[in-house]
Amino acid sequence: MFKHILVATDGSPVAAVATRTAVELAKACGAALTALHVIEPFHATAYGKFMLPSSEAVYLHHARLEAVRYLGDVEEAATVAGVTCTTSYEAGAPVHQVIEEAAQERHCDLIVVGSHGRRGLQRLLLGSVAQKLLLTATLPVLVCRAPHGTS
Hints:
Elements: E1 4-8, H1 13-29, E2 32-39, E3 46-47, E4 50-51, H2 56-81, E5 85-91, H3 95-105, E6 110-115, H4 120-126, H5 129-136, E7 141-145
Parallel strand pairs: 1-2, 1-6, 2-5, 6-7
Antiparallel strand pairs: 3-4
Helix pairs in contact: 1-2, 3-5
């Protein structure tokens, strides 16, 4: 069925659901798994007339440390299940486009993502990577939701 699955993670509880699903599916299909974390671009923030004490270098340092931690969780789950897993983090935006391009470059045949289930104004302001992938991706996309009341 599937030979190479890409799972995108942001370290959230719903990403953990997507990870479990992707690992189980990869094991059932005998597929390889790639875990991806996208680091969004640095945006300088200001409060009043003062710049908050953060630089792009500090942001990227912490973002990379988080990425390694998130990807390590996926790799550990895959290893326990006996699934071959590679990990990668990439910087860029929009996130949905970075995910799809990474999947295509790696010749994946399925993208697995979590959805936080945002609605209304929250969805309008924050957007939905899962929704954008469903609308634009040329590869199949499996969207996982956390059980009601857990995300």
